[in-house]
Amino acid sequence: MRKVSYSLLCCGVAAVMAVGCEKPVIDDPAEQGHEAGANVVMRFSAYQQQDFTRAATQLTDQCSRLSVAVFKADGTKVKSINQRQDDGEFGTVSVSLAEGTYKVVAVAHSSTEGNATITSTEKVTFASNKMTDTFSYYGSLTVTDGSAIDEELQMQRVVAMVRLTVSGTIPQEVQRFKFYYTGGSSTLNPATGYGCVNSKQTEYRYTVVDGSAVNVFDLYTAPHEQNDALKLTITALDAEGQAINEWTMDNVPVTRNKITTWTGALFSDDGTGGVISDGGLSLTLDTTWGGTVNYTW
Length: 297
Known about the structure:
Blueprint: E1 2-7, E2 40-50, E3 53-57, E4 65-72, E5 77-84, E6 92-95, E7 100-109, E8 117-120, E9 123-125, E10 135-143, E11 149-154, E12 156-157, E13 160-167, E14 176-182, E15 188-189, E16 194-195, E17 200-206, E18 208-209, E19 212-213, E20 216-221, E21 227-237, E22 243-255, E23 259-265, E24 282-286
Parallel strand pairs: 1-22, 2-11, 13-23
Antiparallel strand pairs: 2-3, 2-6, 4-5, 4-7, 7-10, 8-9, 10-12, 13-20, 14-17, 14-21, 15-16, 18-19, 21-22, 23-24
């Protein structure tokens, strides 16, 4: 197995911007956040930034799962709610709360693994450390005696994406790619909107899905700060899961609410399936998330 190492050197990024064990379908409306006689209604919407203009979008346009937790001032969790896109009134949570001040944490994502687990106001974990496009809300809520509350709460994207496009020919014997990356986090601190542990993330992607070849692969992580960097190892696997080739990229820049794109050929096009060991690297920023960043090599 031949191993190739690329170092990605970048400069300047600026902008602003999370999944738990699969559980049985919840049929209790209260546990879906639809309590009878509720005095507090919270309507969540996703937040995006595109070319420095702001627009709130429907949650169903961005995510398929929503988890909400309400905490007392002393950190005691008093409400825990999980919704799925096919539940009624997805994105709207109605609960009954006694008079007092609370902290509200909400996380929306599209994991097929399960719901996010909101442990505290400072920790949210995701099933199998798998992350998708993820939005979060953190804020205070004050309930006074006899009052009804109906609020629209905007969520912000808390992940960065790395999009890899493998150009040229991918040999037929390559059935999957393994992406192993460190430097980011798969655990979120909703109070800050950043990752809070040093995670080891692993994703597998097939090169053929439903009979169609796939050469674009998206990876998500929660940066520890606005600008962060990953170390990414890509391993080509055969049908038996054996490694064919491996590449390592150091200092891959990631920024919350931005997409870092990499385009390059990993294999030669001469039919031998040989590894290209130099050149073919291009790093740009996808402006569909937020702004423009230029990298100098």
